[in-house]
Amino acid sequence: MIRPVAVVGAGPFGLSTAAHLRARGLPVRVFGDPMVSWRDHMPEGMLLKSTPAASSLDCPQPGHTLADYCDAAGIRRLVTDEDIIPVETFTAYGEWFQRKLVPGLEQVRVVSVERARGSGDFELKLDSGEAFQARAVVVATGLSGLAHLPPELAGAASEGSGPAAPVSHVYEHHDLGRFSGKEL
Known about the structure:
The structure is a single chain. The longest helix is centred in the middle third of the chain and has 15 residues, at 87-101. It is flat and about 60 Å long. The chain is α/β, with parallel strands linked by helices. It is built from 5 helices and 6 strands. The chain has helices spanning 12-23, 36-41, 66-73, 87-101, 151-154, and strands at 5-8, 28-31, 110-115, 122-126, 131-134, 136-139. It has 2 domains: 5-139, FAD/NAD(P)-binding domain (3-Layer(bba) Sandwich), CATH 3.50.50.60; 148-184, no CATH class.
């Protein structure tokens, strides 16, 4: 039995990697919530700094660029360096890419990865309770879980830190409306 390659993360890099592996005929299991960091942790209405050509996910077959998504979705095609990409368009593009090229994505969390005993494989455990072996593991989790609020700041407010507290990390905010009209 050929063990799969496990891809942990379903953002742009995880989806692109999985598409390339599948195009080579390799069995792949992909874990994560597609585009979750872009959808839930980027400010609503944010505009990407990259050009449309630089914002397409790398893909082994034609027909899956950001411009192709715009055509399929019936929205104005973003193709020139002057075009600005809303984060919502980029997120929808990534989700479209996933549906087209990475079907069967598993929306479960990988809770541990260890070397399997007696082989070069890896043992993965999922929050569903399943354990399985993979011949390789690609970790493409982006910056999720890496937000750091220094203790000096976290303890600065008596209420503590968090999205509704006076002290928070930008990663905790998708809607910046609560800051409208406020000054530093």
